[in-house]
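Hi support team,

I submitted a single chain yesterday and got back a structure, but I'm not sure I'm reading the token output correctly. Could someone confirm the output below corresponds to the sequence I sent? I've pasted both exactly as they appear in my results page.

Thanks,
R.
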Amino acid sequence: MDKVITLLRFIFHISVFFLIVISLYPGSLIGYFLYGDMARQPNLLNTPLGTSINHFIYYFYISLLGFCVYIKSKNFEKLVYVLFFLSITLEILQLIVPNRAFQLLDLITNFLGVLVAFFLIKIYLLFSKP
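Hi R., thanks for writing in. Yes, this is the structure output for that exact sequence:
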């Protein structure tokens, strides 16, 4: 079990690193690898929210993974604040990165991804107690 947790922690930390890189790179790395165009942002789902849904999905994924890995840690709830701070920091830094822009909707969907994952874990913990 310890090896699984260690692997999941590694994946979590690599995912956070990947999030930082794709958020601060001047252009869309994913768009470049998928379409050969750094100016094109991929849409995971075709919604009126545009690429902001990508933010929700990634922050939900990274939050759920982090919460599951650190569920028994005394710093479990601090992870929520760390993810909020990371979200705010990355969005604000996009103001100074070329070919990037701060978008309030992206910030809101980042927060929603973290909150939905947090409340799912809290509900799980509530119902899993003996």
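A quick pointer for reading it: The longest helix spans residues 104-128. Let us know if anything else looks off.

Best,
Support desk
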